[in-house]
Specification:
five-stranded mixed sheet; 12 helices; binds zinc ion; 316 residues; 14 strands; alpha/beta
């Protein structure tokens, strides 16, 4: 059940409390049996406070147990990006009410993963209409297995499914701003989109960015290292020097920080690709520590260097 996660990298999870506080709880619930991980994540979310940070006149960053959320407020109603865990819904709604007229309007999912969509049904019941990429609806409609984590999620209830979907891009004009919703080619998953609030100049890129550490790439959902690098390039093309960029996990970041993450991924890819094309097996490639020069900066999160190297190798 922990295929791909060796003991060393698992121990690193426990050893890096600061970094793991930023990680989705389903990742650091790895000690539990697969069936319990979702329950553990939900239990943890029940008591995790929501931190609200104002990014622009009417745009906020909301951070709790799941993926980072964004909120646009205004007379036309609230737009929420991602919904965290179902059990976080009451706290998220309190956080929204604290800074807005509390009028629900739209919920946009950055991708299908559980730590970003488990709260969908509760938010839909609270009046939010759910928007997402068409593949997010498709994946949420059936059971999904994230092999590396040994997690299987059941089909989402009807109320959790996006009601408005798109394939390439969509513009939404709302509360005096233009929101550009644009699909990334398969990167972290095959459901990833970014949301750019043009006037506020806030860009939510979901899990194509883990700010400050090696990312999780969901190969079970079509994710690849090359796709992550191209997604970074696409996001960098949209961002200006003062754009506030929200990663799926980790602190709010800048264009320069996203560039550094992108460059790290490119170096890791090149180093692992060199070993693979020279004939190294995955095990041999991992043993050669190809990311050694990057590990001090990027390897202290929940994806240890060896696990990350394995993902890169398999998705080249
Ligand atoms: Zn996530
Ligand atoms: Zn994700």
């Amino acid at each position: 059940m922990l295929q791909g996660l060796n003991r060393r990298s698992f121990l690193q999870l426990g050893a890096t409390a600061a970094a793991s506080a930023l990680a989705p709880r389903w990742l650091h619930a790895q000690a539990a049996a697969p069936a319990d991980r979702i329950a553990q994540a939900r239990a943890g979310a029940l008591t995790t406070p929501i931190k609200t940070t104002k990014l622009a006149d009417n745009v906020y960053l909301l951070q709790g147990a799941g993926g980072n959320m964004a909120l646009q407020t205004g007379a036309e109603g609230n737009v929420l990006i991602d919904s965290s865990y179902a059990t976080a819904a009451p706290k998220i709604r309190e956080a929204i009410a604290a800074v807005s007229n509390d009028r629900a309007d739209a919920l946009i999912n950055t991708h299908w993963h559980f730590d970003h969509t488990d709260g969908n049904e509760a938010m839909h019941e609270a009046g939010f209409t759910i928007f997402a990429h068409e593949k997010t609806r498709e994946r949420l409609s059936t059971a999904q297995t994230v092999k590396l984590l040994g997690v299987t999620t059941p089909p989402a209830p009807a109320g959790a499914l996006p009601l408005v979907t798109f394939s390439e891009a969509m513009q939404v004009f709302h509360n005096g701003d233009q929101l550009n919703l644009v699909h990334f080619d398969p990167a972290h998953t095959d459901t990833d989109i970014y949301i750019h609030f043009r006037k506020a100049d806030v860009l939510h890129v979901g899990d194509v960015w883990f700010n400050g550490f090696y990312p999780f790439i969901d190969e079970s959902s079509g994710g690849t290292i090359g796709g992550m690098i191209r997604a970074g390039e696409k996001a960098l093309a949209v961002a200006g020097v003062s754009t506030k960029i929200i990663p799926g996990h980790g602190p709010l970041g800048s264009r320069a920080e996203l560039q550094a993450f992108h460059d790290m991924l490119a170096v890791a890819r090149d180093k692992v690709a060199a070993l693979k094309s020279a004939g190294a097996s995955e095990q041999e490639a991992v043993a050669k520590k190809p990311t050694a020069s990057l590990d001090a900066v990027w390897g202290k999160g929940f994806m240890g260097p060896d696990v990350f190297t394995g993902i890169v190798y398999r998705t080249l």
